Amino acid sequence: MHAAADRLEFAPPDTPGLLRALGLAGLAHVLLVAALTWGVHWKREAQVVTAEAELWAAVPVAAAPRLQEPPEPTRLPPEPKPLSKPLPKPVPKPAPAPEPVAEPPKVDIALEQEKRRILKQKQLDLERQQEKLKLEKQQAEKLKLEKLKAEQRQQANLKDEKLKADKLKQALADKAKQAQDKKQLEAQAKQLEDQRAKNLQRMAGLAGASGGPGATGTALKSAGPSASYGGRIRAVIKPNIVFTEDIVGNPTADVEVRTAPDGTIISRKLIKSSGDKGWDAAVLKAIDKTEVLPRDTDGRVPPVLEISFRAKD
Asked: Is the confidence at residue 210, as pLDDT, over 50?
């Protein structure tokens, strides 16, 4: 009992307004169900669709005249009572003829016919205009096609003319080449003829040669540079030598030089090296820089020369 009393003492108090909250929750649910039910019922109501239409005739038609009711028959007066003497019977009046039905006015018929004629004329004019446009379109397409064909023919003619011009140009080039080849052949033939004449002249002069038994020359007598010619050549080439390195001893470089008849240096070749590549290269560069050698006292330049260059001379 003591433990139970302790538990009740420390238990949380009851929530106030519990019944009121439950009642409000139930009322909210009832209202929600009613709203859903009304919404479903509203969706099921049939929708009435109304539409209006006006009917028009494709071709205007005149209305017929209104039908008139026939006139009422004439009422006869009541017969008199018979008298003692019979009276003559009155002659009945003829019934009035029915009024003729009014015919439709001729003006409306003529107007309708005129409208139909105008409509038909407009339709014919429209058809003629369409036919005219069709013919103009066909003519335009025909002109366009003819213009295209003319341009194609013009391009073909230009292409043919270009081909002809190219062929003519090629023929002229071939002809010029043939002429050049002919000139070269003539020059070669002349050179061969000159060489042949020189050979014949050399062979004819061998009988009067003055060389020794071991001579290998082809001239009637020996010919060579003068004694001072070597010094003159060195004097021309040596100023062009650029060499600033220190060198041991006095090395010598021997060079073979080939020249043209006017003294122009054609080639040079190192025959014997000095042992110093720098000195050899400097000598060869100096020869190239010189380009032309001086003539000898007789006005000639030997075709082949062997020249020695010492570093300390």
From this structure: no
